[in-house]
Amino acid sequence: MTALPDAPHTSDSQHLIECIVGSWRTQAVGAAIKLGVVDELQNEPRTADEIASALSLDAESLIRLLRALCTLGICREHAGQGFSISERGQLLTSAGVDGVSLRSLALWWSGPLWSLWLGLDYSVRTGKSYREKLTGSMPYGHLVWCLKSNLNYF
To answer: I need a labelling partner for 78 at 20 to 30 A (CA). Which of 1, 101, 116, 118 fits?
Structure first.
């Protein structure tokens, strides 16, 4: 195994690594919203077992998701007291902060838009719209497709 090169290339390597593995962040945020985790943490710290019980989730899997959210600054883990939502994480709750919520944006990017980016190579190779191939419509027909598919993020 080759070690990462010394500076100045290390920052380039680190940046590229973050780009390559960054998709987990979008999916972790989307899952936390879809599962109700961020709203469940809104009022007070809760243990993973309490949240899992309230939302019918697997506690061990939930701990991994919560710790991933902690690395993103969305949650905080308190020794022996469970997890709480951070100020940053409040922006993902239903209530948001001062009427501002990024919840819909996160659900949109982790859901319907996610599948469209999977076809970027198709679009570049063929010059055709992967969105049109996937949904059968252009240019904003995907919004109708989302509504018909019961994917209402707006």
So the answer is: 101
Give the domain ranges of the chain: 10-101, 111-154
Contacts of 123 (CB under 8 A, 6+ apart): 129, 130
CATH code for the domain defined by 10-101: 1.10.10.10
- pLDDT given at position 129: 87
Predicted pLDDT at 3? 55
> What is the biggest distance separating any 2 CA atoms in the chain, rounded to whole angstroms?
55
Length of the chain: 154
DSSP assignment letter at 83: E
Is the pTM for the entire model greater than 0.85? no
- Written as six digits, the tokens of 7 are 């500076």
Q: Which two tokens stand for residue 135?
A: 């949904």
Q: Are strands 75-78 and 82-85 parallel, antiparallel or unpaired?
A: antiparallel
- pLDDT, tens digit (0-9, with 9 covering 90-100), for 45-56: 999 999 999 999
The backbone torsions φ and ψ at residue 85, rounded to the nearest 5 degrees and listed phi first, read: -85, 140
